[in-house]
Amino acid sequence: MRWNPFRSRRPPLEISRRAICWAREEFPSSSLLTSAFVTDVIVESLGVGIDQVKPETRFIEDLSADGLDNVEIVLAIEEALEVSITEDEAETITTVAELIAFLDRQGVANG
């Protein structure tokens, strides 16, 4: 089914099958679609291998993300998931698990 801009405010999320399988294994207690989407955004934004994205992975220390990379990730997530992440909130998120938990608390998995 093709996305109709008149029926929905946002286009469907593009989530790779590989990310869904990876998320099911690595993030069992989180929303599957949220964790798969976050995994895809990180892999695409930072150019890292999917096997580097684990719950305990730290953006700066483990993935060598800089401030601009973090802004790119936050903007991609905000736009696609229609959620707002303040600068203060973004500064407290240091790991992949923290980002997914934040999104789950915002109710992203439910809507």
What does this structure look like?
- The chain is an all-alpha fold and 111 residues long.
- The protein has one domain: Non-ribosomal Peptide Synthetase Peptidyl Carrier Protein, Chain A.
- 55% of the residues lie in helices and 0% in strands.
Mean pLDDT: 84
**Helical percentage:** 40-55%
Distance between the termini: 19 Å
Oligomer: single chain
Structural class: mainly alpha
CATH class: Mainly Alpha
Which residues sit in consecutive blocks of at least 5 with pLDDT less than 50?
A: 1-12
CATH topology: Non-ribosomal Peptide Synthetase Peptidyl Carrier Protein, Chain A
Tell me the total number of β-strands: 0
Secondary structure tally, helices: 6
**What would you call the shape?**
globular
**What count of structural domains?**
1
CATH superfamily: ACP-like
Report on the biggest sheet.
none
The gist of it:
The chain has 111 residues and is mainly alpha-helical. 55% of the residues lie in helices and 0% in strands.
Give the secondary structure arrangement, pairings included.
Elements (H helix, E strand, L loop, with lengths): L16 H10 L5 H15 L12 H5 L3 H15 L5 H6 L3 H10 L6
Helix pairs in contact: 1-2, 2-4, 2-6
Give the key terms.
Non-ribosomal Peptide Synthetase Peptidyl Carrier Protein, Chain A, disordered N terminus, globular, 111 residues, mainly alpha
